[in-house]
Structures are given as C-alpha cells and as structure tokens.
Amino acid sequence: MNKPEKKAVIRAGTTVEQMVRAIADLIITGSLEPGEKMDEGSLASRFEVSRTPVREALRELCAMGLVDRQPNKRAVVTNVSGGALNSMFEAMAELEGICARLSAERMTVAERKHLEEMHQASSRIVRASADEDYAAYNIEFHTQLYRGAHNDHILELVTQTRARLSPFRRAQFRLEGRLAKSWREHDEIVTAILRGDALAAGKSAYEHVSIVSEASATFARPGVPA
Fold first, then answer.
1. What is the pLDDT of residue 3?
2. Please, are residues 95 and 216 in contact by the beta-carbon 8 Å criterion?
3. What angle do CA 202, 204, 210 make, to 5 degrees?
4. Is residue 1 part of a domain?
5. Other C-beta atoms within 10 Å of 59: how many?
6. Binning pLDDT at 50, 70 and 90, where does residue 150 land?
7. Which residue, of 53, 77, 101, is where some domain finishes?
8. CB of 83 within 8 A of CB of 184?
9. Residue where one domain finishes, among candidates 34, 60, 77
10. Which of 99, 130, 172 is CA-nearest to residue 122?
C-alpha cells in the first residue's frame, strides 16, 4: 500500500507547536517509520523556518519518545513501544482519576457551571464529526479537571504526562465512532462531578483514560508487544 504524500500532511507553519504536531502525526500514522532519519535542513525548508525552531521541535519529540537523537548524530524516528505507551497511560489514568475525584470535592460553583457548559456545547462538534475541533476541545476539558483539583503539584505531574501522550490522545479521534464514545465518557465524569460524587467521578475518569489507552494502542509501534 502506498504511503500518504508527506507534503500533503505537513503544512507550512512558523511555530514549534505546529511542527511538533505535524511531525508527531506523521510518525504515529506510519508516514514516517522507525529508523527514518530527520534532516534539519529538509524540515526547515518544508516548514519555511530557520533551523532553530526545528531543533526545538525535535527536542520536544525526543521528550515524547517519538524521536531519538544521540550526541553529534542526526535525529531518528523511534515511535513509542506498546509497553511504554501502556506504562504512561497507566500513570495517566491514576492521575486523572485523582483529579476528577478532587474536582468533585473542590470545584467552585463557577467552575462546575463552566465545565457543564463546555461539555454540552461540545456535542455540536461531535455531531459535525469535526475530529480536529474535538481534539482541541478535549485538551481544554481535561485541563479543567486538572485545575479543578486545586493541587499545584498534581497539576504539574498530570500536565507533564499528558504532554508525552498528546499525539496518541489526539490520534484516537481518527477511529470510527470515537468522538461519540468520548463524549459519553465525559458525560459520566461531568455528571458525577456535578453531583459531588467523588468516588464515581474518579472511577469514570480512570475508566475513560483506560479506554483511550486501548484506542491509542492502535498507533503504537508495530511488532512490539503491548
């Protein structure tokens, strides 16, 4: 089967975030394969930027485990093994469960109202099957859970873990029917938080991330057991 045309996937941009997202998507979907070398000059030309933001993007991709770069050597695509992905998602599920439980206990009235309004409004995105818009909304939804826990140390931990998993969490929305399922999972979390049911909120958030982990495993590196 022919690979997708790379230039059709990577769009010109001027920010490190744009480059990280575009390159990560190429790696996860297999357009860039493990072992493939990443040439700074070619990437700079493709994105119409200098080599400085390219180097920063490659550093972030290394932190995500999608690229490996040894001293004085060219960066190489690695992708994340199934085992490593499971390990990170296991930690993420625990952290999000804690955040949802604490949010049910600590969110202010205004925060609960904002969470509910966001969630209900997102149903329009689901009906439109706008996966990119839903992915952006999804980040904000989970951020509200993290902040609602009102614990700065947990916020730092969960944000760092999410950063490493973000390409895989975004990729899950490519799967058939995933938007609607994600919305229903969110609905259980929101309902529990609005009721102030900490145990139910934590359980629903943990199960939600576990389901995301299963969906995202589709994009783990082939040939490496999960």
1. 41
2. no
3. 105
4. no
5. 15
6. very high
7. 77
8. no
9. 77
10. 130
Specify burial of residue 40 (Cβ count, 10 A radius: 0-12, 13-18, 19+): middle
Specify the DSSP element, H or E, that contains 56: helix 51-64
Condensed to tens digits (0 to 9), the pLDDT of residues 81-115 reads: 777 788 889 999 999 999 999 999 999 999 999 99
Same domain, 40 and 104: no
Residue with tokens 């290394």: 62
CB 69 within 8 A of CB 76: yes
Which residue matches tokens 């149903």?
123
Whether 17 has a pLDDT exceeding 70, the answer reads yes
Shared-domain flag, residues 124 and 179: yes
Distance from the first to the final alpha carbon of the chain = 25
CB atoms within 10 A of CB 87: 12
79 SS3 class: coil
Do 174 and 95 lie in one domain? The reply is yes
Q: If phi over 0 gives left and psi between -120 and 50 gives alpha, with beta otherwise, what is residue 113? A: alpha
Q: Give the helix ranges, DSSP H, for 72-197.
A: 82-106, 109-127, 131-148, 152-171, 178-195
Residue 224 lies in a domain: no
CATH number of 39's domain: 1.10.10.10
Find the domain containing 200 and state its range.
82-219
Who's near 219: CB < 8 A, 6+ residues apart?
A: 28, 29, 168, 171
The domain spanning residue 205 has which CATH number?
1.20.120.530
